Amino acid sequence: MVAPAVLRALRKNKTLSYGVPMLLLVVGGSFGLREFSQIRYDAVKIKIDPELEKKLKMNKISLESEYEKIKDSTFEDWKNIRGPRPWEDPDLLQGQKSRNS
């Protein structure tokens, strides 16, 4: 068996306690990142259904088409309405607004 003095020396060795885990993290992270980045390139290679692709092309919304929709709108009579915060009850907040108006 291994002598207790040798085990004690290995536990106190800073290279083994800090260096080896760091080296494993760097090397293991490199292999992990390679696998995850490969998923991105594999997803690009997947062919989509031609029918679905045709529907997607028909539903294209451009910035110019959205601008044409709101070009003639007037924004002089708008109200600033605050939305509820995460800790507030939305129904309670809406009730307060209707009473104040």
Summarize the structure.
The chain is mainly α and 101 residues long. The protein has helices spanning 4-12, 14-45, 50-58, 63-70, 90-100.
Give structural attributes.
mainly alpha; 5 helices; transmembrane helix; single chain
Structure, explained:
The protein is elongated and about 85 Å long. It is mostly helical. The mean pLDDT is 83. The N and C termini lie far apart (85 Å). It is built from five helices and no strands.
- Described by its quaternary structure, the protein is single chain
- Share of residues in strands: under 5%
- State the secondary-structure class: mainly alpha
Got a strand count? 0
Contiguous low-pLDDT stretches (5 residues minimum) are: none
Order of helices and strands: HHHHH
Q: Into which percent range does the helicity of residues fall?
A: 55-70%
* Count of separate DSSP helical elements: 5
Question: CA-to-CA gap between the ends?
Answer: 85 Å
Radius of gyration from CA coordinates = 31 Å
What does the average pLDDT come to?
83
Fold blueprint:
Blueprint: H1 4-12, H2 14-45, H3 50-58, H4 63-70, H5 90-100
